[in-house]
Amino acid sequence: xxxxxxxxxxxxxxxxxxxxxxxxxxxxxxxxxxxxxxxxxxxxxxxxxxxxxxxxxxxxxxxxxxxxxxxxxxxxxxxxxxxxxxxxxxxxxxxxxxxxxxxxxxxxxxxxxxxxxxxxxxxxxxxxxxxxxxxxxxxxxxxxxxxxxxxxxxxxxxxxxxxxxxxxxxxxxxxxxxxxxxxxxxxxxxxxxxxxxxxxxxxxx
Length: 205
Description:
It contains seven helices and five strands. The protein is of the alpha/beta class. The chain has a single domain, classed as 3-Layer(aba) Sandwich (Arginase, Chain A), CATH 3.40.800. β2, α2 and β3 (84-88) form a beta-alpha-beta unit. α4 runs parallel beside α5. Residues 1-15 and 22-35 have low confidence and may be disordered. Pfam families: Arginase.
């Protein structure tokens, strides 16, 4: 089973939990990102999840912290609405962000439990954070999460330590660009994310 590095450009996502299809021996990875036809290339870096969903290589995805979706991306969101759980930033503005995240994540994890999904892949894009907390990225977009909200979201998702220790099969942190960093702020937060993920799964045998 291969472990992909899944990143995001033009959309900011903090956590993508990719649930691997229990009936498949392989986790398919396409070197592309989210929707077909970006720059007139159906296999661009902008479409991996689209192809993963099309190939039925994954069962469910939760995306937290999305902002500035394109019309094409909204069409795909509707097309795969039964498999996609999405929390867009406007849902968090003016509300208790952690309460919204906790509610949506709880619903998502319950669906996974009901469907007996047992394999998780976690990918975190540091550009989901507001530039004030992570300036060292290539695509700066105001209106992101705070670092506190990001770490709290991880804690909410993996409150069940058994889930983290036994079910996470891989993780990554992407979109860090040291050329744009200021005083290593983004480097430190990226390292802390990796440390937090490592702590979640450190007791796995």
